[in-house]
Amino acid sequence: MKRYPLPLLMMMLCVSPLAPAQLQAPPDHAVVVAVGGPGDDVVLQSYLDQALRANPALAARAASVRASDADVDAARAQEWPELSLNARYTRSDGGRTIDIPTGDLLNPVYDTLNQMLEAQGQAPQFPNISNQSIAFLRAHEQETKLSLTAPLFAPQVWANVDAKRALAGASRAEREAYARTLVRELKRAYYAAVESNAAAGILEASEQLLAENVRVSQSLVDAGKATRDRVLRADAEHLNAEQQLDAARAQTAQAKRLLNMLRAQPLDAPLQLPTPESLSLPQRRAVPTHSRPELRQVERSLVAARAGERAARDASLPTLGIAADYGVQGEDYRFDSGSDFDTVSLVLRWQLWDAGSRSAQRAQARAQTAELQARHDDLLQQLELARRAADEDLATALRAVATGQARVAAAEEGFRIAERKRDAAALSQIEFLDAERNLREARLSLAIARCDAFDRAAELELANASYALPDDLTAP
């Protein structure tokens, strides 16, 4: 697995969310790692716990899960009846009217009756009346009612609920995938900090050795046993070591800031960093593996796509619902038999023609399902490929540690011999500096190899999804 330089890794983490570098399939058994013995990773475990509790990007994905669950509840609510209170009060003026010629019809009759009464000596009793003009709109009226609606047959609603449930599962799988990637990235940052801190310690010891070499070289020159060029060469090597030490310290500071960022702490918060030698090397052993959440995410998305395909097919079916109203209406608010009303309706809706819209939706849903199925099949291959690569990388890293240990032992013995010869003026300056450089490079190489083994172990742990996350991050 390629290891990114710290500045590049920091830039990647700041610009974009953590993305899995490799994916792998879940075979029946796979090689996983157990890093060290009890107590070896107490500090690292505390940093991991902090990151899983407080990392803002992980918190964002947890909020996304809650939003998906709420979306499921909203979809399920559409399967239940809905009760609402509707009230309306209206004042109106003008509008259409209907004219009734009441006066034209009745006044001639009334006149005749009045004449007959007068002929009998009685007073007229029937007055003249005017024609009537009745407005269609009441001057004021109200309607207040309770409305109940419920779906009886709504296959699209049912398919939508299934799709929302599947998408919620995909959201939880995405959260778990990010949590596992966060664990991997924090471990890589932790071991990078351990590595750079160890390198700074090795270079500091080398700088002290070279400073002592400058002093010894000057003593030999003063005693007439060496020429001035010996001191100049020793001083140049000493300055070079100081430059490397300064760079290593800067890299350590960068690694610490990255580690603090991942665990959601102030960038300059203090850290505890062990030496590479104090950590037990990771071991390889075969145990049952767990399904990668990335694979479950695609599988749940595929279930949602199939539910969407079913909803597109069901759009050709009719929907049936019930609607019931009860309330009062009139010019005033009255609750009596003359003012209240109730209605019950069965509502059928069947869309018979839509210019091919539903056919296009069905074709789109089938294409999306086929796309996700192809991604799923491709992901299976990527999963297995990455798992095997991570296993092989760890084995190579462990062999490199064994080689590095032998190299350090040889370099230390060679330097002890060279140091005694130098003190006796029986060794050239070039040979002594070569011995010191070999020792420095061997120690640096071993520190890098040990930390690289831990880095590869973290990659394999991600590949097998074997890190024990909290239960709230692995809920199905």
From TrEMBL:
Kindly indicate where the leader peptide sits in this chain: 1-21
In terms of InterPro entries, this protein maps to:
OMP_efflux (IPR003423), TolC-like (IPR051906)
Quote any Pfam family the record assigns: OEP
Which Gene3D superfamilies does this chain map to?
Outer membrane efflux proteins (OEP)
In this chain, the stretch annotated as Disordered covers: 273-292
Q: Say yes or no: keyword Phosphoprotein present.
A: no
Q: Which residues form a coiled coil?
A: 231-265, 362-400
Q: Does the keyword Coiled coil apply?
A: yes
Which Gene Ontology terms cover its molecular function?
A: efflux transmembrane transporter activity; porin activity
The cellular location(s) given in this protein's UniProt record come to: Cell outer membrane
**Main subcellular location of this protein, as a coarse class:** membrane
Give the keywords, sorted: Cell outer membrane, Coiled coil, Membrane, Signal, Transmembrane, Transmembrane beta strand, Transport
Mind telling me which GO cellular component terms the entry cites?
Answer: cell outer membrane; efflux pump complex
Give the family this protein belongs to, as stated in its UniProt record.
Belongs to the outer membrane factor (OMF) (TC 1.B.17) family.
Can you name this protein? Answer: TolC family protein
